[in-house]
Amino acid sequence: MEENNNEELENLSMLDEVDNGSDGIKIASDVIAVISGVAVSEVKGVFAMAGGFAGGITEVLKGKKNLAKGIKVETENNKAKIDVNIIVEYGARIPDVAFEIQNKVKKSVEEMTGLKVEEVNVHVQGVNTQKLTEDEAEENIDEVNTTEE
Question: Which of 85, 89, 94 lies closest to 40 in space, CA to CA?
């Protein structure tokens, strides 16, 4: 029975696995992506992760947030390269946000997995201007109120 369980576990494993040294631990790329996603979500100035169409559909159907959305992980020889796709908040200084993401992702992944993170590439896919439009709406309301008085 134990042998059957091992086969099931191997079949359930994600696409890429990283063998973390001689201790026999294998870490799926999706695990690294989730660790990275949590680190990115802690950075001030990040509005959302920019994932593909399929990721958005998955979130809607399953009703839960996909923490690996917008993150691509490549692993080879205990080294990782991570691409992060984000949408920044309007008014945030993009170089500062990107630098903070690089530091947090690198630190989190290296501490939790023992892998060496060679690259963290941050791709800014857009800027959320919703706050700007809310401010403009408030200005318009103030203008209407002053003209009515």
Answer: 85
* Domain coverage including residue 45: 29-148
**pTM, to two decimals:** 0.69
Kindly report the number of other CB atoms within 10 A of residue 46's CB atom. Answer: 22
Q: Which of 99, 106, 98, 101 is nearest to 79 (CA)?
A: 106
- The number of C-alpha atoms within 13 Å of 135 and in the hemisphere containing its C-beta is 6
Distances in Å between the Cα of 28 and the Cα atoms of 1, 4, 74, 81, 142 are 24, 21, 11, 14, 54
Report the percentage of the chain scoring pLDDT > 90.
50
Beta strands at 79-89 and 46-49: parallel, antiparallel or unpaired: antiparallel
Contact 20, 78 (CB under 8 A): yes
Decide if 18 is inside a domain. no
Query: How many structural domains compose the chain?
Result: 1
Residue 5 inside a domain? The answer is: no
Provide the CATH number for the domain around residue 133: 3.30.70.1350
